[in-house]
Design a protein that fits this description.
This is XRE family transcriptional regulator. This protein is an alpha+beta fold. Among the domains are: 3-103, no CATH class; 186-316, Lipocalin. It is built from ten helices and ten strands. It is globular and about 65 Å long.
Length: 339
């Protein structure tokens, strides 16, 4: 798969999850280093020719070609041409975004994101807004987060806020940021990077096993979120689970490869796993429907690879998870939807 195809596939997965164009463009900039103008176009799934066609349809008195878009997107590089304010205004309307979203890769000479202005604004909001207003402000921010990750992010943020609040025990201050997860034994921690494997039976190829490197996050309310790491499999999976002691119960969703046999079809179902007493593996079964509308099931297994889940660990596992000759067909492999 070419890098551009990968970018378009990634953008489509975010759009399907409900992400706005600016949020999708930010992800493209962060993940692929795409310039702001190009990222906003890719967020809509358009080629430069597509964007030029849409521009000309809207403003036939000022037609543009793909060469114009190429020149704008190469700016501020030496081969690019700076778009005028009128062009920026029309592009923001074309892409349904703010003008500053198109200029995001220019240097910011004002206070940084952690500067006094932002800190003071946050303090004012917390101190002056009533809870319903503050909730609406947080909800507005959350709309910028991909829908599949939104709940996990908000729960993680609320847990961090509670941990940061200083308390007193018998009049003695207790340090803020008391490690929430350290209160659990090492056997009980699920947060980290795991190898995910599930199996189903294809009517044409027999047993098929699929492999993913996944990030696992468990919050203080026993909710467990599991997501595929990019590049570990072309059909990412998402699991939303609730933990009751050693039992994980919830749902799974698979987003099949856009350029694969299933053309980006989405399959989903239920799952239950039992965590090993060591806390380093979990085994269970999935249940879901197939292409014929029948309900099938099969085994699903998780194996802990590392308890670290930071950017470095994620980058290390951003590679194919399937071992050679595993039956996990790369590129355009099957999914639980095929039987």
């Amino acid at each position: 798969m070419s890098r551009r195809s990968e970018q378009l596939r990634f953008a489509r997965s975010l759009r399907d999850a409900g992400a706005t164009p600016p949020a999708t463009a930010r992800q493209l900039r962060d993940r692929f280093g795409v310039r702001a103008l190009a990222a906003m176009r890719l967020a809509h799934g358009w080629s430069q020719a597509d964007a030029a066609t849409e521009w000309t349809r809207r403003w036939p008195e000022a037609p543009r070609t793909f060469k114009n878009f190429s020149s704008w997107e190469n700016w501020p590089g030496p081969t690019g041409h700076a778009p005028s304010l009128d062009v920026i205004d029309r592009l923001s309307r074309l892409y349904r975004c703010a003008a500053h979203d198109l200029l995001a890769d220019l240097p910011d000479h004002g206070p940084g994101a952690d500067g006094p202005g932002d800190v003071e604004a946050l303090a004012w909001q917390v101190g002056n807004l009533e809870l319903p207003e503050l909730t609406r402000a947080v909800a507005h921010w959350a709309e910028l987060v991909p829908e599949r990750e939104r709940r996990a992010w908000l729960l993680k943020l609320s847990t961090a806020a509670a941990a940061a609040a200083p308390v007193q025990v018998d009049g003695v201050p207790v340090s803020a940021l008391t490690p929430v997860y350290e209160a659990r034994s090492a056997q009980d921690r699920l947060t980290g990077i795991w190898l995910s494997r599930y199996q189903y039976v294809s009517t044409t190829r027999g047993p098929i096993q699929r492999h993913h490197h996944v990030t696992v996050f468990e919050n203080s309310e026993n909710q467990v979120g599991i997501s595929s790491i990019e590049h570990s499999n072309d059909s990412p999976v998402q699991l939303d689970l609730v933990r009751d002691r050693q039992v994980l119960t919830g749902t799974w969703t698979e987003f099949t490869a856009v350029d694969g046999h299933y053309r980006g079809a989405r399959y989903h179902g239920a799952i239950q796993l039992v965590v090993d007493p060591t806390g380093r593996s979990a085994r269970g079964r999935w249940v879901g429907y197939d292409r014929a509308g029948d309900v099938d099931s099969g085994p699903w297994e998780l194996t802990l690879l590392t308890t670290g889940s930071g950017p470095g660990a994620v980058r290390e596992h951003a590679r194919p998870a399937a071992p050679p000759n595993s039956g996990d067909a790369p590129g355009k492999g099957p999914s639980p939807g095929e039987r």
